[in-house]
Amino acid sequence: xxxxxxxxxxxxxxxxxxxxxxxxxxxxxxxxxxxxxxxxxxxxxxxxxxxxxxxxxxxxxxxxxxxxxxxxxxxxxxxxxxxxxxxxxxxxxxxxxxxxxxxxxxxxxxxxxxxxxxxxxxxxxxxxxxxxxxxxxxxxxxxxxxxxxxxxxxxxxxxxxxxxxxxxxxxxxxxxxxxxxxxxxxxxxxxxxxxxxxxxxxxxxxxxxxxxxxxxxxxxxxxxxxxxxxxxxxxxxxxxxxxxxxxxxxxxxxxxxxxxxxxxxxxxxxxxxxxxxxxxxxxxxxxxxxxxxxxxxxxxxxxxxxxxxxxxxxxxxxxxxxxxxxxxxxxxxxxxxxxxxxxxxxxxxxxxxxxxxxxx
Length: 360
Ligand SMILES: Nc1nc2c(ncn2[C@@H]2O[C@H](COP(=O)(O)OP(=O)(O)OP(=O)(O)O)[C@@H](O)[C@H]2O)c(=O)[nH]1
Ligand SMILES: [Mg+2]
Prior knowledge:
- The chain is of the alpha/beta class and about 350 residues long.
- The chain folds into 3 domains: about 1-110 and about 195-275, Rossmann fold (3-Layer(aba) Sandwich); about 120-190, Orthogonal Bundle (DNA polymerase, domain 1); about 295-360, Beta-grasp domain (Ubiquitin-like (UB roll)).
- The protein contains 15 helices and 12 strands.
- It has helices spanning about 15-20, 45-55, 80-85, 85-90, 115-145, 150-165, 180-185, 215, 235-245, 245-255, 260-275, 300-305, 305-310, 320-325, 330-335; strands at about 1-5, 40-45, 60, 65-70, 90-100, 195-200, 230-235, 275-280, 285-295, 315-320, 340, 350-360.
- A 6-stranded mixed sheet has the order 2-4-1-5-6-7, sandwiched between helices.
- The relative contact order is 0.14.
- The protein binds guanosine-5'-triphosphate and magnesium ion.
- Guanosine-5'-triphosphate binds next to helix 1 and helix 9.
- The site of guanosine-5'-triphosphate has 17 residues, from helix 1 and helix 9.
């Protein structure tokens, strides 16, 4: 499951947003332990799953989910973040940036400035990574005195590149690394290597200009960096919408000119940022959406469902969602030769409806 960590300066709306993303849903949640981050699960909204469910009328409908992590410890203790495994292991960082004005809520870094906050947080991430990289390089240098290994040398080479970038204030996500270099770095779980989504927490009054928020915030240049995007929301309004019943919520959103909920927008932006796609499994028992990184071969994708299914993988029966909806039934797709048999190397596409044949 995709895990996204909320980070940001104090009182910018992280916890409000966390509730918006997770509380509206009654999926099970792990009880937060003291001084540990809040962990919650959000369903990925997907119109396609609704239509498949209408077609199959299954006993169960299971959406894909995203896990959100919110630092329960208030304040700007980046070290606490750095040390928390829930943040280290996150697939993406969502930096909540304050744009709402409310004078009664102080903003610790000073007057409201999205650019300054974006840069300051980036510097914190870079610094945390620099400490890790330097420590590892020192360690390698000591070990190499006892005898140089080719593996160690290769690891050192890529870490030196990282160190140089970090010292120049560049995040690791901006480095153009080869796949094998990235593989060497994976274990370090560097923060500045993670895709970054700036969540611009707007003032209620600025909602009509939401689409232009990155421009108005002066963030266009910051966003030219690799794997960095921005999405506007107004956490407070979204929270209020979450308190309403469905009909009132729809009317309220229409009044505000909001076409889609903040949850939808943030999740969609996170998916786009990470290059995630969804595939589906369907049947009378269950219709389910699964999310995977783009480019996964079918056998690896099958492992998302169950490791036994990946291990015993024989073939994948695949039909594109659009075809299935267009024909109206699986049988009709079969009659038209639109259900393909694919091998384990087949790269799963967004919207594939898949039935995996496997041996136990
Ligand atoms: N006007 C306005 N107020 C907001 C918005 N989002 C959050 N707030 C308020 O800002 C205050 C802080 O919100 P939180 O969600 O607790 O912020 P946080 O980032 O979790 O804060 P810490 O965890 O204490 O660092 C609360 O009083 C919120 O009601 C917003 O979009 N507009
Ligand atoms: Mg909080």
